[in-house]
Amino acid sequence: MRILFVHPNYRSGGAEIAGTWPPAWVAYLSGHLRQAGFDDIHFIDAMTDNVSDADLAKRMEEIKPDVVGVTAITPSIYRAEDVLKVASEVVPNAVRMLGGVHATFMYKQVLSEAPWVDVIVRGEGEEICTELMLAIEDGRWPADKHKIKGLAFMDGDQIVATPAASTVKDLSKIKPDWTVLEWDKYIYIPLGTRVAIPNLARGCPFTCSFCSQWKFWRDYRVRDPKDVVDEIEDLVENHGVGFFILADEEPTINKKKFVAFCQELIDRGLPDKVKWGINTRVTDIYRDRDLLKFYRKAGLVHVSLGTEAAAQMKLDIFNKETKVDENKTAIRLLREADILVEAQFIVGLDNETPETLEETYQMAWDWQPDLANWSMYTPWPFTPLFQELKDQVEVFDFSRYNFVTPIMKPAAMERGELLDGVMNNYRRFYMKKALFHYPWRGTGFRRRYLLGCLYAFLKAGVGRTFYDLGKVGYTGPQSKNKLDFHFDDSRTIAEAQMEDWVSSADKAAAAKERREAVKAQMKERSAERTQDFKLPNGAEIKACGGGSQQMEDV
């Protein structure tokens, strides 16, 4: 059976300005499928190769696949649907499969707007996809589709979702096939070397209201560090990778496993051959302050911190559980360990003003991270925060949910003013860094890396690909009132998806009401029991410590 995977051709001028990123999803799926005996696997990276739909159609006709599979995050969902639309026209007998975080939670929306999608894989894909491929190969598809967990599909005019499948419990079975990628295409611009995105852990125990990772991966699991380093050693020795970023939301959560991972890298001499970066939380930097130099010895050179916002109020909205003053200290600790640090800010909330944007700039300059990044507040349509704010959402064109487009309009600013304010922050921060910091502070690797980052910014700026500036027509402050964000106003929430949202919201509200009622009832009964109960000597009952009042719930 011939399987074709396609990475959709979508660009936003965000993370891709730093390089050409390898689509790790296809390696992880292909590796699992090969273990099950599927060897005829093909891959088209339509994004990296900038493949048009017409050229994609020709290549599909040449390959003649039995299955066409594609994945998508929210902003690339329409391009992923387009890939399967092309497949329906040129290889109509192929099963058309879609996976990824957006389709997992928005399957009713996807199947309503793209009925040519045959099946959606919901959740962690390796085991579900393999079971689906086995059913297709054995001729049990579509007859057995209701028996396979973790799917969604149309059954007549009804949208059906089978029960959720289990997450991958035995992570030793995760053995990606990195040979499916053409490695000369994937270059990290700051270092001019091949780049990879391997995976140490899956899931996240934290529940940030703007994030979906903890919902998608569900339970938090860590792979054996030796297995991961085996994978990295293969990437270095056989594919020429010189830099990698761990795909984990926060790889430092399990301190013991992360330390073992670093030690394994050191024991194999890999830090001399490959450098790497991570995303993590400020609290973990505090926790590991005595280990930061050890992490640097293991090759860790770049840490991106989710400082998120300059105002503590915003951090509370995001449920980040961090304090503003902790961010400055964490940045200092990393710089003292010779680890480059990138501060991430989220801007564009309802209460954003020119003054708060200026505050984030002043705070960024005061903290002195090596790099700073301002991302537009973008509520994923399947997160708790979106449910809370959906009455304020005006744009349902998911192709613009890319962290560089102001989806939400602040009450006191126009979208063009917000974008111009963010660009002003970028201009000032990096101009000062370029003139007074990067060329003069530090030598060797640090200086080369920072100048490489500056080059990546300049390259994207000159080409006007940074932040999609060319597409929206931004040429400077004089253009801020003339921008066209190209929102597709015809995009709306499908009726089936809206019903699902309402049902979920009603269930959540009812559950909360039940919890509050039970809590109140328990308090009432406790008070009654205390009032009726007398000690044998007739003494009055006291609370802990001899007081007359019980501790208040907090």
Please describe the structure with a list of short key phrases separated by commas or semicolons.
seven-stranded mixed beta sheet, 16 strands, alpha/beta, disordered C terminus, 554 residues
What is shown here, in short?
By secondary structure, the protein is α/β, with parallel strands linked by helices.
Protein architecture, described:
Helix content is 41%, strand content 14%. The protein has helices at residues 24-35, 53-63, 77-90, 101-105, 107-113, 125-137, 213-216, 225-239, 255-267, 282-287, 292-297, 312-318, 324-336, 354-367, 384-389, 415-436, 444-462, 469-472, 495-532, and strands at 3-7, 41-45, 67-71, 95-99, 119-121, 151-155, 158-161, 187-188, 193-196, 201-202, 221-222, 241-245, 275-280, 300-308, 340-347, 371-376. α1 packs across α6 (125-137), α2 (53-63) crosses α3 (77-90) and α8 (225-239) packs parallel to α9 (255-267). The protein is an alpha/beta fold. The strands form three sheets. It has a seven-stranded mixed sheet, sandwiched between helices. Strands 8-9-12-13-14-15-16 form a seven-stranded mixed sheet. The termini are far apart. Mean pLDDT is 88; it is low at 541-554.
Rg on CA atoms, Å:
26 Å
Task: Give the overall shape.
Answer: globular
Secondary-structure class: alpha/beta
Number of helices: 19
- Proportion of helical residues: 40-55%
Tell me the major beta sheet: 7 strands, mixed
What is the total tally of β strands?
Answer: 16
Terminal Cα span: 59 Å
pLDDT < 50 stretches: 541-554
Arithmetic mean of pLDDT: 88
Strand order in the sheet with the most strands:
2-1-3-4-5-6-7
